[in-house]
Amino acid sequence: MLNRRRFLMSTAAAAGAAGFAGLHLSPAFAEGAPQIQIFVPAAPGGGWDQTGRTMDQVLRSEKLISGSQITNVGGAGGTVGLPQFINQWNGKGNSLMVAGMVMVGAIIANKAANNLTQVTPIARLTGEFEALVVPAESPFKTAADFVAALKADPTKVPVAGGSAGGSDHILFGLIAKTVGVPATNLSYVPFAGGGEALSALLGNQVAAGISGFGEFSEQIKAGALRLLAISADKRQDGIDAPTLKEAGIDVELFNWRGVFAPPGVSDADKAAMITLIESMAKSDAWATECKNRNWTPILLTGDDYAKFVTEDTARIEAILKDLGLA
Amino acid sequence: METLGHLAHGFSVAFTPVNLLWCLLGTTLGTAIGVLPGLGPALTIALLLPITYQVAPEASFILFAGIYYGAMYGGSTTSILLNTPGESATIVTALEGNKMARSGRGGAALATSAIGSFVAGTIGTMGVAFLAPVVVKFALAFGPAEYFSLMVLAFITVSAVLGSSSVRGLTSLFAGFVIGMIGVDLQTGQPRFTFGMTELLDGVDVIIAAVGLFAVGETLYMASRRYAGKDEIVPLRGSLYMTSAEWGRSWKPWLRGAAIGFPIGAMPAGGAEIPTFLSYAIEKKLSKHKEEFGTVGAIEGVAGPEAANNASAAGVLVPMLTLGLPTSATAAIMLSAFQSYGINPGPLLLTTQGDLVWGLIASLFIANVILVILNLPLIGLWVRLLKIPAPQLYAGILVFATVGTYGISQSPVDLVILYLLGAAGFLMRRFDFPTAPVIIGMILGPLAETQFRRAMTISNGDWSVFYKHPLSLTLLTLAFIGLVGPHIWAYVEHRRRRGPEHVPGDA
Question: Which segments cross the bilayer (chain B) (predicted)?
Answer without folding.
Answer: 6-25, 32-53, 59-82, 108-132, 138-162, 169-186, 206-223, 316-338, 358-383, 395-421, 471-492
